From TrEMBL:
Methyltransferase type domain mapped to chain residues: 269-361
TPR repeat feature ranges: 27-60, 61-94
Xref: PANTHER family: UDP-N-ACETYLGLUCOSAMINE--PEPTIDE N-ACETYLGLUCOSAMINYLTRANSFERASE 110 KDA SUBUNIT
Pfam families, A to Z: Methyltransf_11, TPR_12, TPR_16
InterPro entries in the cross-refs: Methyltransf_11, OGT, SAM-dependent_MTases_sf, TPR-like_helical_dom_sf, TPR_rpt
Gene3D superfamilies xrefs: 1.25.40.1040, Tetratricopeptide repeat domain, Vaccinia Virus protein VP39
Name of the protein this chain belongs to: Tetratricopeptide repeat protein
Keywords, sorted A to Z: TPR repeat
UniProt entry tagged with the keyword Ligase: no
Length: 437
């Protein structure tokens, strides 16, 4: 267990198996080896190991909770719900199981039941900072009026008061204040934070996002790396809470209108792969599927999920610049929202594609017909259609298709987005699948 906690998974797995050679049904070894197998991308094996442990100790709430976590992270929400309810039967004060139950109820579009679970959690554990934070996110994600945003402010303040190192709560507080039009308060939160941690890239970037400093041309590497490394463990869970998150599927569907039928013949790059949500959607087309992301924590989650032939940790523009004529398809889901000026990264993507290759990406939509880019209080950029179109044309792309859609909700409202396809000039993709070169 010490090796496991230290993330020395090779040693931990070897020692768990040695324990099981000495005692075949040792329940803790079965349980934690099951958790480890899931971490290493062998989720089915992990499920069976934990189920075996529960045959020995059927009233073990932690094992039921961890079994639920595997089901949740594999998208089996009903099974996860049943596990969390069983954990609460065995341990009514199991706060993690109760908060996990609230998350999967929310993900199943059962907001009233989720709200009741969050309320119960805070009645049982009023000093549980994570509970206040999760309720704040819930209120903001499902806001039906300004009062819900105001209530989220109170939740985030309470979470931070209970745990002063809980910087996610501080960041969430500032976003809610900004949404309420209390910009001066939001700016002051970031200034105070930056005064305490002058080298922290997060308050520096978010201060600019709230209008307290000049906006950079793109989010800095340190900011993006820190944000996503910090959220790697809960990233998919946060996406589950944004019930209408659809970017991977929408982009894959858009590519399906221009690519030949799936035949595992194309070289495909998932540019900004995150935890690997796009992998199963791209795999049917891919002879070779690679992913790249700036966050090492995200890449590790993608490695555990599986489906890629190669994964790299790198800044996207620099990575693409070293990949001349390497890819038939480049897909980038919700990654270019961290770039203001799109010109350099699109030029690099154009050079990385083979002639006739396709680029697919999503952006958050800026209103108006001008060539506009805005850094928003979320820390992400919005782009006008004109800006995207001109940047693609300058990069050399043709056959540009920009459609409006909503890829997720934020603050209870759909986020206007652009779904973009563009093609590098050259020979057309043959019906057999592989691009001619």
């Amino acid at each position: 267990m010490q090796a496991h906690q230290a993330e020395d998974l090779d040693t931990a797995e070897r020692l768990y198996r040695e324990v099981l050679e000495l005692r075949v049904a040792q329940p803790d070894a079965l349980h934690y080896l099951g958790v480890l197998c899931h971490q290493r991308g062998r989720s089915d094996e992990g499920v069976e190991l934990i189920r075996t442990a529960l045959q020995v100790t059927p009233k073990h709430p932690d094992a039921h909770n961890n079994l639920g976590n595997i089901h949740k992270e594999c998208g089996r929400l009903r099974e996860a719900e049943a596990c969390y309810r069983k954990a609460l039967e065995c341990g009514p004060q199991h706060y993690n199981a109760l908060s996990n139950l609230a998350v999967v109820l929310e993900a199943q579009e059962r907001p009233q039941e989720a709200f009741e679970a969050y309320e119960k959690l805070l009645r049982q554990a009023p000093r549980y900072a994570q509970g206040h934070y999760l309720l704040g996110l819930f209120l903001r994600n499902h806001a039906q009026g300004i009062e819900h945003i105001e209530q989220s402010v109170d939740c985030f303040r309470q979470a931070y008061a209970l745990e002063p190192r809980f910087v996610q709560a501080l960041e969430a507080l500032s976003v809610s204040l900004y949404v309420l039009g209390r910009t001066d308060e939001a700016v002051q939160v970031y200034r105070d934070w930056l005064a305490r941690e002058p080298d922290n890239p997060i308050p520096r970037h978010m201060l600019a996002a709230c209008g307290g400093a000049e906006a950079p041309q793109r989010a800095g590497d340190a900011y993006v790396r820190d944000i996503f490394d910090r959220f790697a463990d809960s990233f998919d869970e946060q996406l589950l809470q944004n019930l209408d998150y659809r970017a991977p599927q929408v982009l894959a569907d858009a590519l399906g209108t221009v690519l030949p039928p799936p035949a595992t013949t194309l070289d495909v790059l998932d540019a900004g792969c995150g935890t690997g949500l796009c992998a199963p959607l791209l795999r049917p087309h891919a002879r070779r599927l690679a992913g790249v992301d700036l966050s090492g924590g995200m890449v590790e989650k993608a490695r555990q999920r599986g489906g890629y032939d190669a994964l790299d940790v790198a800044e996207l523009t620099a990575y693409l610049q070293g990949q001349a004529d390497a890819w038939d398809v480049v897909l980038s889901a919700d990654t270019l929202v961290y770039f203001g000026e799109l010109g350099p990264v699109l030029a690099a993507a154009h050079a990385a594609l083979r002639p006739g290759g396709w680029l697919a990406f999503s952006l958050e939509a800026e209103a108006g017909d001008e060539d506009g880019v805005t850094l928003t209080a979320s820390g992400r950029y919005r782009h006008s259609r004109t800006h995207a179109l001109r940047a693609l044309e300058r990069a050399g792309f043709g056959d540009i298709r920009i459609a409006e859609d909503s890829l997720r909700k934020e603050f209870g409202q759909p986020v206007r987005s652009w779904v973009v396809l563009a093609r590098r000039g050259g020979d057309a993709m043959p019906a057999s699948g592989r691009l001619a070169t």
